Structure of Histidinol-phosphate aminotransferase:
Amino acid sequence: MSEQSLESLLRPELQGQSPYGAPQLDVPVALNTNESSYDVPESVVASIVERVEKAAGGLNRYPDREFTELRAALAEYLARVTGVRLPIEQIWAANGSNEVLSHIVQAFGGPGRTALGFTPSYSMHPIISRGAGTTWIDGLRDRHEGVYDLDADLAVEQVREHQPSVVFVCTPNNPTGTAVTNDVVEAIYDATDHAVVIVDEAYVEFARPGTASAVELLDGRPRLVVSRTMSKAFAFAGARVGYLAASQEFCDAMRLVRLPYHLSSVTQAVALAALDHAEEMLGMVDAIKHERDRIVATCTELGFTPTPSDANFVLVGGFADEKQTWQALLDRGILVRDVGISHHLRITAGTPRETDAVLAALTDLAPTHK
Ligand code: PMP
């Protein structure tokens, strides 16, 4: 018997697909994955070590499967930043918001069902959906190319047309940085009586004043879920902690798909330590927003076309050949992200020194790369 190729044995929806692949290169200026460029403050490091030390002796036992203390700390944090106080039964957490999203799609997507997103958006939404056997539908963000605000009428029209089981709304949106107002989320929710509507707020702490969290909409909307992360504004990407807020029934459904004890004792300990110091952890957010706005202003002056952003990155357009510019920047030790949109690159806002480096390089390159 001849062996079949392993590729042909894959589930059909995975055949020919590419994995998530942001390059992890050791470069002086890494501005490609929207992490915080600022290290965890020393005082918080000390608290983390203390918490982990306490947890270490108990590592012979499984962790608290319900991560009760962590959910309480997350509920407290959400109340502080959104003004909405939720009981811990309305909070769920996992290893990064990627796993949170994966739990949601495992529970509400799956074979024979579809998930709809509005592209360009976060590349993991389709990958997570397909991974759970869900058919992905690449919806449109706007009728006009190069416009990245989510068009409410178009979104509603597509929800009605496709009748998905899951709808992804990313705000502020990766990779465009554009935010979606709550009335658009409400319109999408009202356009269906059976789809779970995921609002991915991974970057919400960077939004400009006037952007309300969709957490404010949760009351009376059992199919609405808001996912968030400690990876971005919280400067805690390495800890892998994401969470969601939704109705209690929704959170209960997550228990059907999570693996038991998915959040290790160490993860719970480090997250609790960071949440004890939320203000310090978020201390660089304003500085990062300043760098973001500087990238927008200078790129505009250089004749590129950046999209004003509510996140910690900027999508910059106007490159004659984005692949060539990406390489030219890398040759100068600067790693940015090619998000697969022609003539565009995405640049994370980091420290002033990093902004100086990327803007100096773009100034240098502008005459030949525009
Ligand atoms: N959502 C969006 C929109 C993102 O950009 C990211 C990270 N790039 C995530 C979710 C996942 O982040 P994490 O798993 O680190 O929480």
The longest helix spans residues 352-369. The chain has a mean pLDDT of 96. The chain has two domains: 21-38+284-369, 42-281. The radius of gyration is 21 Å.
